[in-house]
Amino acid sequence: MKPIFSRRGLIVSCQALPGEPLYWQGTMARMAQAAELGGAIGIRANGPDDIRDIKAVVKLPVIGLLKRDIPGSDIYITPELVDVQAIIEAGADVVAMDMTNREDRAEKVVPLIRHCHEAGVAVMADISTFEEGVLAESLGADLISTTMSGYTPYSPKQEGPDLELVRQLARKLTKPLVAEGRIWSPAEAEEAMEAGAEYVVVGGAITRPQFITQKYAERLGRYLDRTASSR
Ligand SMILES: CC(=O)N[C@H](C=O)[C@@H](O)[C@H](O)[C@H](O)COP(=O)(O)O
């Protein structure tokens, strides 16, 4: 499979889910345009509508996924073949899918990966542990991303990115490694690359203003609490 991205660098995740203020037709395409202007080398996006809108206005490769809740299942990132097909039809260059070790996922993703490859589309494995990353590569994933670290019951819960996982996987994998999840500053993005990531995905810190605001408001709130008694 030929290289997907023009060079190493920043991929911006442009996602707004129902209920979020920016969940509005066309908004994520604007975010993607801003990301392209700012120097991103790729976009990650959720759902066929946003992917189509984004592909129409930016030249960058798009990693597509489909978040869908299935009753009784914890797998929500591109869970089934119909989701894979919808994302391919929308024009994604890469399909991202859950490749955690839950609910016999390893077995279930094999036909999904095959389907992508037959369509000439690459696969990004969203994993949460070292073992899952190694397994995903052996199953044929083209990119391995730390997306799910902190979001499975058995992976470490931490405020910042899982740089230790990036370090471990970088020593083992031959496929390109992506650092993703809770990267909030340019310094953390650099650390992730230093730890061995080929690409760094940043989402909320760039495209979810409610969370950006929250970070500032909480910090100032703590400052005000700390200093209240001394006034
Ligand atoms: C765990 C999960 O469902 N992650 C999702 C995957 O697409 C997105 O909600 C994240 O925004 C994305 O991974 C980027 O991460 P962050 O927004 O922390 O930079």
Description:
The chain is of the alpha/beta class and 231 residues long. The chain has 9 helices and 8 strands. The chain has helices spanning 27-38, 48-57, 81-89, 105-118, 130-139, 163-172, 186-194, 204-207, 209-228; strands at residues 9-14, 42-46, 62-65, 94-98, 122-126, 143-145, 177-180, 199-202. Strands 1-2-3-4-5-6-7-8 form an 8-stranded parallel barrel, surrounded by 7 helices. Strand 1 (9-14), helix 1 (27-38) and strand 2 form a beta-alpha-beta unit. N-acetylmannosamine-6-phosphate binds next to strand 8 and helix 8. GO terms for molecular function: N-acylglucosamine-6-phosphate 2-epimerase activity. Belongs to the NanE family. Its EC number is 5.1.3.9. Pathway: Amino-sugar metabolism; N-acetylneuraminate degradation; D-fructose 6-phosphate from N-acetylneuraminate: step 3/5.
Number of structural domains: 1
Q: CATH class, anyone?
A: Alpha Beta
* CATH architecture verdict: Alpha-Beta Barrel
The small-molecule ligands in this entry are: N-acetylmannosamine-6-phosphate
Query: The CATH topology, please?
Result: TIM Barrel
CATH homology superfamily? Aldolase class I
Mean pLDDT: 97
Main sheet overview:
8 strands, parallel, barrel
Terminal CA distance:
64 Å
Tell me the strand percentage band: 15-25%
Number of strands: 8
Main-sheet strand order equals 1-2-3-4-5-6-7-8
Compressed to H and E, one letter per element, the order equals EHEHEHEHEHEHEHEHH
Q: Helix/strand/pairing class, anyone?
A: alpha/beta
Report the C-alpha radius of gyration, rounded: 18 Å
